[in-house]
Amino acid sequence: MKHRQFLLLLLIPLLLALLLPGQVAARIYLDITSPELRKIAMAIPPLVDRAKDDQPTDSGRQMADILSRAMELHGFSETIDPKLYGERQDANWQRHGAEFVIQGSYREIGGNFQLELRLLDINAGRMIHGRRYQAPRELVRRQLLRYIDESVEVLTGKKGISNSKIAFVSDATGHKEIHLADILGDNVRQVTRHQYLAVSPRFTRDGEHLTYTSHHRGNANLYQTNIRELKTTRAISRWVGLNMTPTWAPDDNRMVLTLSRDGNPDLYLTERTGKIIRRLTHGEGVNVSPSFSPDGRRLAFVSDRSGTPQIYLMDMRTMAIQRLTFQGHDNTTPSWSPDGKWIAYTSRIDGVLHIAVISPEGGPPRQVTRTWGHHESPSWSPDSRQLVFARLRHDREELCAIFLDGSGLRVLFGDQSGNHSMPQWSPRLAW
């Protein structure tokens, strides 16, 4: 009797793992911050159609491609070419060097897709994350990205960033307008159609809204639009002069932005509607480009009060201001990392603009970019591991992304025409 009870206790975890895949699976953590980290080998064969004898299809290949690009985005894996193992889901994975495999199947019934996805640890010989989804065709991509973000969390302990977007300025239409794309560079949409100058996109903390400055009404007004619909746009700050570059407090009910209503560009704390709560700077030079710390207690901004543009920090409780950057004569566009550990900014180094990072507690800065050309306007990924920025080469601006350690630089949206600038990486999106 005791022996049977002992066997039952051993079987319970196994039964739970089979019945509730992904809920009780063992977590595997990769130290993605380690400088010695090597990329893991990942295989993602085409998803098979259960209604067609589990054969790979064009739809299955497209879904596998989305999964592969989303996983590689995170920088710790490289995908084995499916042609090397004949696109089979039952390949000899160890022979092909795969350490992890994502296997998937689907079935389409009445316009709805039933997806099954499994992440396998080949060396351990077990599934470590499994999910079933049901979604209409237009939402399948979202579920695939959701699965990757969950799998990244299982592998690294930190949720992925596949379901995020990048807003940027493009002159592809002949005018500088705001555009929006998902992080893989697909589904690029034009947000503004003012046929005039629109610049400086900024996301609210919840990622639901996008603010930007447009001159189409004869003044540099601040506007806001819901990025789910891209239909309703309203002005939220229309003071005479500049209304631009807002940074949102953690509760999304207050923002700090640059206004020049009294002549000099200064920082103001306002309500969400643009109603002024308090003036924060008072004409000690030009004061622009605010960026809240994640907890909202401090504010990074640019001021030339010392004679050259430098990064300063303001304590939002005491209003005390201290200078942060001392190296270089031109330090601008600060961006506080979501984890609070770094402030990225544009720095002129030997006459060339580069991206640098510095601790908010001070100390020596660290140069991130080193390729030729001018690099500016950094913005952080939601996991604080990557930066997106604009790079100018041969009189053409393009968007690039790079990891915090300076590795993995790549051009984004290279198939899009026009010049691209002022990128902003959204938070993780819940939809």
UniProtKB/TrEMBL annotation:
Pfam families linked: PD40 (PF07676), TolB_N (PF04052)
One Gene Ontology BP term is: protein transport
Q: Origin, by domain of life?
A: Bacteria
Residue ranges of the TolB N-terminal domain? Answer: 29-127
One GO CC term, this protein: periplasmic space
Q: Name the family.
A: Belongs to the TolB family.
What is the designated name of this protein? WD40 domain protein beta Propeller
Task: Please tell me the species this chain comes from.
Answer: Desulfurivibrio alkaliphilus (strain DSM 19089 / UNIQEM U267 / AHT2)
